[in-house]
């Protein structure tokens, strides 16, 4: 901001369009195997039309933190089969972290819509196994299979049961049922990639005095909730490379170890991960997501931009 010597916000726009769409269940992804991580890449080849979202209203495809079915099955399969972009694999070998049994941390994604598939593809392209858990596994079966042997599809319950870390890439309205489906989350890291969007993306349903992430933490007994992956579109989650620098991904959560692990996941898929401290910082991250949505969809900037940090020495 003007008048400060600290970091500033940089809006970066790439030089060309990339693309992908996603169609699949709005809830669910995961794995019952240890050693899994999840993430995905999907770049849109043009702007999609309006898609029906959970809650009975329509939203443009792949709004940050508001995943939903969209596009067609052929689009998903084509995106999954697409070649990784140049340099996409030139990242650290792993996000790191061991579970209490001393095994590699496993990561499930609940949701196989645009955000879920974007995150999943990004990780499989980097050699990380991914399991998607959805209510109706038959729906995204072809798209998940197209990701290759590192991708697996199962039910939501099995996905959660086999995971140390679970990313929620579902509509915000689905969170209460998911959170309360388990009496005890057993210390799992629950990554909230959603935003509490009002109908039509015109506003947030809540904010500034609380947040969707804090609400989730109050419902998911025994979970270590971390807010991340909610402040930008699926295109950027899938391919974070920009000619002007590295987009940043803010992360917050009350558990320091859980937060550190998710910072590693964000770094793994190409972001400059920024630690914002405790979970109450989600009160600012969710409105920040609305800034991206407003610029992209209301002000006509399009979806090919991301926020980064500028620093003074």
TrEMBL record:
<feature type="region of interest" description="Disordered">
    <location>
        <begin position="56"/>
        <end position="77"/>
    </location>
</feature>
<dbReference type="InterPro" id="IPR028939">
    <property type="entry name" value="P5C_Rdtase_cat_N"/>
</dbReference>
<dbReference type="InterPro" id="IPR036291">
    <property type="entry name" value="NAD(P)-bd_dom_sf"/>
</dbReference>
<feature type="compositionally biased region" description="Low complexity">
    <location>
        <begin position="56"/>
        <end position="66"/>
    </location>
</feature>
<dbReference type="Pfam" id="PF03807">
    <property type="entry name" value="F420_oxidored"/>
</dbReference>
<dbReference type="InterPro" id="IPR051267">
    <property type="entry name" value="STEAP_metalloreductase"/>
</dbReference>
<keyword id="KW-0560">Oxidoreductase</keyword>
<dbReference type="GO" id="GO:0016491">
    <property type="term" value="F:oxidoreductase activity"/>
</dbReference>
<feature type="domain" description="Pyrroline-5-carboxylate reductase catalytic N-terminal">
    <location>
        <begin position="108"/>
        <end position="196"/>
    </location>
</feature>
<protein>
    <recommendedName>
        <fullName>Pyrroline-5-carboxylate reductase catalytic N-terminal domain-containing protein</fullName>
    </recommendedName>
</protein>
């Amino acid at each position: 901001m003007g008048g400060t010597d600290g970091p500033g916000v940089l809006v970066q726009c790439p030089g060309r369009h990339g693309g992908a769409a996603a169609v699949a269940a709005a809830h669910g992804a995961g794995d019952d195997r240890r050693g899994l991580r999840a993430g995905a890449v999907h770049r849109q080849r043009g702007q999609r039309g309006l898609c029906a979202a959970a809650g009975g209203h329509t939203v443009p495809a792949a709004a940050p933190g508001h995943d939903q079915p969209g596009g067609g099955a052929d689009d998903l399969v084509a995106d999954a089969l697409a070649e990784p972009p140049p340099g996409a694999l030139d990242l650290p070998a792993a996000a790191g972290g061991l579970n209490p049994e001393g095994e590699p941390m496993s990561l499930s994604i609940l949701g196989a819509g645009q955000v879920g598939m974007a995150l999943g593809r990004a990780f499989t392209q980097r050699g990380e196994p991914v399991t998607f858990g959805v209510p109706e596994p038959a729906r995204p079966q072809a798209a998940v299979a197209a990701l290759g042997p590192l991708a697996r599809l199962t039910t939501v319950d099995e996905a959660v049961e086999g995971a140390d870390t679970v990313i929620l890439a579902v509509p915000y309205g689905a969170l209460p049922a998911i959170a309360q489906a388990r009496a005890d989350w057993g210390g799992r890291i629950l990554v909230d990639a959603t935003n509490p969007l009002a109908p039509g993306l015109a506003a947030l349903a809540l904010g500034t005095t609380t947040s969707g992430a804090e609400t989730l933490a109050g419902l998911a007994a025994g979970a270590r909730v971390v807010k991340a992956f909610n402040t930008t579109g699926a295109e950027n989650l899938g391919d974070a490379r920009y000619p002007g620098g590295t987009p940043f991904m803010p992360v917050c959560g009350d558990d320091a170890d859980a937060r550190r692990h998710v910072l590693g996941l964000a770094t793994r898929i190409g972001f400059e991960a920024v630690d914002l401290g405790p979970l109450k910082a989600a009160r600012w991250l969710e409105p920040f997501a609305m800034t991206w949505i407003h610029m992209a969809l209301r002000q006509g900037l399009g979806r090919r931009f991301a926020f980064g940090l500028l620093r003074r020495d």
